[in-house]
Amino acid sequence: MSSINATRRVPQGPLHLMYRVYRYILPDVDAELTRWERRAESIPDPELRKQALASIHSKRFHCQGGAVYAAAQMEYRHVLIPLIVALQTISDYLDNLCDRSTSLDPDDFRLLHQSMLDAVNPSASVQDYYAYRQEKDDGGYLEALVRTCQTCICMLPSYSAVFHEVTRLVSLYGDLQVYKHIRKELREQELLAWWERHRHGYPDLLWNEFAAATGSTLGMFTLFMIAAEEGVTADRADVIKDAYFPYVCGLHILLDYLIDQEEDRIGGDLNFCSYYKDVGETSERLSRMVSQARLHIGKLPNPRFHRMIIEGLVALYLSDPKARMQGAVRLVTRDVMKKSPLMRIFFWVNSIFIRKKQEVTLT
Which residue, of 182, 185, 285, 349, has the fewest CB within 10 Å? Predict the structure, then answer.
């Protein structure tokens, strides 16, 4: 597919994008998640089964948000949606395993996340990812997710051009998951030591913002999206990665942590937004992250599409019921949204969609 034809097919306005998302993308995502849910229900080990099902039930909006990138490549949505859902499901499942883990072994966490590196490398062999933990028998669930990613990747015409950048982002993601899930008294010092090895490349970030950026899968999904085009070069992949990392990716995860602050406080989980000194600094740094994200995606082809991704991303998180229940988050929501009419449109639509889903659930 030529870049000219691809450009014509990329949604350029919110109504066009939302039509595709609600008409095609979300139903396909739901179908994929239903398939994985059924597979998870048959996991023999009760703890692995519990965490696999919990990750699908409580984090499905991660897959819904990530799959929006398929709206720009509708001819490849049958490849991109299963790929994005499978990789995000691995991410969410492993996050649950590490967050609620019976282990605090960094080798365990490293080996679990090797599955993500293998998933984005079509020539990799699957391994015993549970070798360092007590629970082992998932009935082939994690292997099936890895194989699905590999199969889909082989169908993307320009994946070889983006492979290096995808691997770098997945590698950083794995580093984060190891350092943030080890023993609590070691987490911060390991994260800060890790930051020292990378801070020269990101002088305007705080350490918690860099760490947050590494926790996002959006850069990976964007690279999958452009890999669906023919003739993509490694230089273009590098431009895409630099546009998304660290600002769009950092914004993504900081928003996730923002709405989870109360939940993480109760659960004793690390939360990167808690390192801001007060609500004022939180609002200021998030607003800055939004501005930088907009600036950097403005340099990409089809900047309107990527701008809509950012506005929709913020609206998706800030319209979440958890956000409305926290007074401090409502203040940040007001400050971040007040400068963007487009974001308010997405916020309104997402709020309606959430209410309707809740009504269906209650009836």
Answer: 185
